[in-house]
Amino acid sequence: MARMKFLCDAERCIECNGCVTACKNENEVPWGVNRRRVVTLNDGVVGAEKSISVACMHCSDAPCMAVCPVDCFYRTDDGVVLHDKDLCIGCGYCFYACPFGAPQFPQAGAFGLRGKMDKCTFCAGGPEADRSETEFHKYGRNRLAEGKLPACAEMCSTKALLGGDGDVIADIYRERVLRRGRGAEVWGWSTAYGLPPKPGAQPPAQQPGAPKSGKS
Amino acid sequence: MRALVFIAVIAALGLAGCGEKEQVVVYKQGKYQGKPDNRSWDNDPPVAELRGSKWSKGDRTSWEEAIKQRQLTQNEYKRIGQ
Q1: I want to staple A150 with a disulfide (CB 3.0 to 4.6 A). Which of A123, A146, B33, B82 is the partner?
Q2: What's the average model confidence in pLDDT over A100-114?
Q3: Nearby residues of B58 by Cβ (< 8 Å), 6 or more positions away
Q4: Which residues contact B18 (CB under 8 A, 6 or more apart)?
Q5: Do the domain assignments include residue B57?
Q6: What is the distance between the alpha carbons of residues B62 and A58, in angstroms, rounded to a whole number?
């Protein structure tokens, strides 16, 4: 059974925002709503700058689903977390629960009223007839129903952003790391909780257990 | 007797007006309350112009295989070759 996930390779992301543009264009996302965005750490620090593309990660145990007071979230058989906009009341609980800031709220009125939540759908539409005008209007394009992958991942020029079944994209990433001999240390404990690198410093210490081939 | 039936009918009709339909949806925590969604593999494969994958309608395995082949194109070591 497929479990659809995203994986962003920070060694490859060049902060071109192609994924953001592809998402906006493919789903005709309104102004002010960013289903996907590129986050840069250590911006401007030579040698230490890393960028990653972030959107809904379609968590296996999604906190947004847990906190939703109207239970408008569901998980498809492919592991994609979606929601019913007809049921959403725009309370914003999911926004506070999500560790990735994925839920977005359009400014629906002239007085800053908060609209119904909008988020990345893994280009899988929503609970409307697949590939219908209504589905596109509410949730964006349903590329999975066309046998395609999310537009952001397919448009990524450096293939930093991978999308698909977790096992398949993990294999692709593993092969990539083994071939280039580095990259496993980018994600891990030392990155998340280590000290911030100083300007001109070496990359973070290698994660224990990471491959140590000397190709870098 | 007729008066008794009349009173009973009036009472029944009158009390029926006291009935109230539930207007507040009772949500059960942890259970999806929205509309059902279609499955991707239950659709026909897209027309050739859309350049999507091909699968047999309703066949989950063929859809998963088609989407897996699409995923593997993200691996340029395999796609382009060495």
Answers
A1: A123
A2: 82
A3: B41, B42
A4: none
A5: yes
A6: 23
Structure-token match 């543009």, residue found: A21
- Amino acid letter, B36: P
pTM over 0.90: no
Strands (E), chain B: none
The CA distance from A95 to A111, in Å, is: 20
**Cβ atoms A128, A82 nearer than 8 A:** no
Per-residue DSSP letter, B45 = P
The question of ipTM being above 0.85 is answered as no
Domain housing B70: 39-82
Chain B residues whose beta carbon lies within 8 Å of the beta carbon of residue A67: none
Domain count, chain B: 1
Whether residue B18 is contained in a domain is answered as no
Residue B59 lies in a domain: yes
Nearest CA in chain A to B62: A147
On the question of pLDDT at B12 being above 80, the answer is yes
Query: Cβ contacts (< 8 Å) between A146 and chain B: which residues?
Result: 46, 50, 52-53
Domain A4-180: which CATH number of 3.30.70.20, 3.40.190.10, 1.10.150.170, 3.40.630.30: 3.30.70.20
Whether residues B46 and A175 touch (CB distance < 8 A) is answered with: no
Tell me how far apart the alpha carbons of residues A115 and A72 are, in angstroms, rounded to a whole number.
Answer: 15
Helix (H, G, I), strand (E, B) or coil at B78: helix
In-domain check, residue B13: no
H/E stretch holding A190:
helix A189-193
Distance from CA of B69 to the nearest CA of A (A): 10
Residue A130 and residue B68: Cβ atoms within 8 Å? no
